[in-house]
Design brief:
Elements lengths: L1 H16 L26 E4 L2 E5 L10 E2 L3 E5 L2 E4 L5 H22 L23 H4 L13 E3 L2 E3 L7 H10 L22 E7 L1 H5 L6 E2 L6 E2 L10 E7 L6 H4 L7 H6 L16 H16 L4 H4 L5 E2 L3 H9 L61 E7 L32 E5 L14 E6 L7 E2 L3 E3 L2
Parallel strand pairs: 13-16
Antiparallel strand pairs: 1-5, 2-4, 3-15, 5-17, 6-7, 8-11, 9-10, 12-17, 13-14, 14-15
Length: about 475
Amino acid sequence: KKILLFGAIIAIIFSGCSPKNPGELVGVKYEVPYHPEDSRPHGMQLIPRGTYTMGANDGDVPYAHTTPKKMVTMHSFYIDQTEITNNEYRQFVHWVRDSIVRTFLAEDGGVVGYEYLGQMDDYEDPSEKTEKEIERPSWILEDDSRLQKEDGKFVPEIDWDNDDIFNILNETGEIYYSAEEALYGERNFDSRTWSYKYSWIDKAAAASSANRFEPDEDSEEFGYPDGFTRASLRREAEVFVYPDTLAWMHDFSYTFNEPMFDTYFWHPSYSEYPVVGVNWEQATAFCHWRTDLRLSTLQPKDRKYETEFRLPTEQEWEYAARGGKVNSIYPWGGPYSRGSNGCFLANFKPIRGNYIADGHAYTAPSKSYWENDYGLYNMAGNVSEWTSTPFEPTASMFVSDMNPFYTYDAKPIEEGGNKLLRRKIVKGGSWKDVGAFLQIAAKDYEYQDTSKCYIGFRCVKTYA
């Protein structure tokens, strides 16, 4: 009786919270409650919302580019704990490579092309095989544990040692170097053909006052003034994804950096070092691919809650670098580049000609030195980092003090674009910079289609 009485009381309490009339305004009921804190991306730190004073601090060197002091309020966002590493960027490059290869293999016979794809000795007419047997292409490895999952399906790895596959791909003239370019007769991939095509919606164009929706008098469709349609918000790009490894040599004159050119990106010893030689356009393409990769593992009902990966704005980067400290000159809070024990606190050029005084001649592993109070490594030194913000010295005068954001669509030079409009802000200083460029407020710029051996990047993701 006590149990029944208790149950009746609970039922009365909860029934009082629900409207008796289904026509009442009670809001939308979601099937599964969404908690963004439960879906923190791997390797990212959550930066809490808050207000900070961005820009130059006392002690900034006059010749360093800085932003005038301005108090701004920032939203919450995730940011990578470290710079994107060689190994992480390789995943992107290999995904592009394998996608191109699978396209060629499918065009040359696909899942039923056994006569071309490796089972020459045991070949049987595909029409005599069962549906289950035909589902598995013969060019994949037999080890099921090496299957990759994409779009919720298992996609097999390619058996690169299969001679028949090599012959198919070699005949295309696009996957491997030609006999004239190949060294020592090896099967070397021609990475110059690895391009990533993607599209996105230009939200900044949609927000422009000149492009607001208006009824089109000539049709029943809603469009934009002067024939500007909603389809015009769609942008497309094709980006070649392999890093410019030659940057190690053309960034410095009369320097023997050939060992870094030969091994830095692909060698396992450098897997946890920051990727360099990646321009702004490649970094932006990586963010798009990373978003798509994450969405491919989610159910459709969960995808709508996801925000995209992107490059940080200048203000987001600076807010994260400060680590919650007020008026800090460096991410670690103090005004000096050495700790109490006399050791350098970042990877930069502390003494002219003595690059290794801080422990590393070039770049350092992505988790070197100490993290700031937000748990972020190398927000000063190691490699400078791309931001999404164009370099405009007067921008602080007109951007909002609530989540400042400034952007424009810089056209390529060959399409009549202005080269000055293709400058993007880089922050943090690098292994080859003096201490002035390690200051949080310092900034420099580089053209978005150029790559340097001292510039990398990290991603951010808006906290929903």
